[in-house]
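Predict structure. Chain length: 132.
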Amino acid sequence: MRIGLPVWEKRISPVFDSASTMWIACSGSGNDYHWETHDLPEGPMIYRIQKLLQLNIDVLICGAVSRCCLQLLNGYGFQVVNWVCGDADEVVKAFLAGHSLQETHAMPGMRNWGRGFRHRKGRCWQKGRRKQ
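Prediction complete.
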């Protein structure tokens, strides 16, 4: 499996759309892996996606990603795990161990994402009522 991570200073880059470096964790059997490093092209988003296709990425783990870019990635068949932050090595280890990255490495403000929580009028609401 080839896991792509846009990286800035050994951490997951906060925004995929502006990342300049891609680390690829190439996993073999079990939880063993080695790193490859590649530069991402500047310019239109399709250039980045073509680079990911050339690199044979199976999974893309990233921080924030624009809606347009996410739709393109999904359209090309990439498995995208977004809203992730932290040390790239720790993130890959957690992913390969089967941990939910939304539980262990969610970006600030995204900890309850996908669990029925919504932010309305600056307050956190759950299933239509204000959370105490």
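Summary: The beta strands are 2-8, 11-12, 21-27, 33-39, 59-61, 79-81, 117-120, 123-126, 129-130.
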